[in-house]
Here is the input.
Amino acid sequence: MTPIRIRRKALSSSMSARLFDGLRVPAKLGGHPALDFANTRAGWWTDTPTEYLHSFRHMVVMTGYLGLLDMETVNALKIRDAPAVLRRALAFRVALFDVLTQAESASAWKLVQREFALAAPKRRLLSGPPARFGWDGDEVSLPLHALAWSAGELIAADRFDEIHVCVGTGCGFLFLDPRGRRRWCTMAVCGNRSKVRSYALRARDG
Here is the structure.
């Protein structure tokens, strides 16, 4: 696997966001739920990165937004509080980001593997019609299990060469780009802002 070349420059906050279930969430630009989960933090290499997972409720709602848990489960869990699960999720996100950008250490791989292993016993094949995959129980760890399982699926698919990092100022979102032609997660936001800045610099220098 060829390591991703990441521009580790100072970033300000300018990424895309949406409202879902009353909470601010990052736009789904990654092309895979695991990448969109990694994008719940932006500007990783700045002193003031943008954070979306402010509470356990944010994490639960995010799994519903990504389609990893059904909304009935989301509504039942979001009224609960599980700060320990949130802390695990934040640590998992850091390790996952390192793995997805191939900057991982042995400890990052170990943490990702551990969360995936904890999720596996809870995975179920539910009867239909149509039959579908789901989760057993309603424990507070289910959102993290769903996120870990999704991440495991992406990692096992070995699509590392298709994962790119948005070079837009204030973004750094991860996204799938099989052709390797995109520089930005979205032309409508990061691409246009970059062009505006370039035009302003040319006008100033002229």
In short: The longest strand covers residues 17-20.
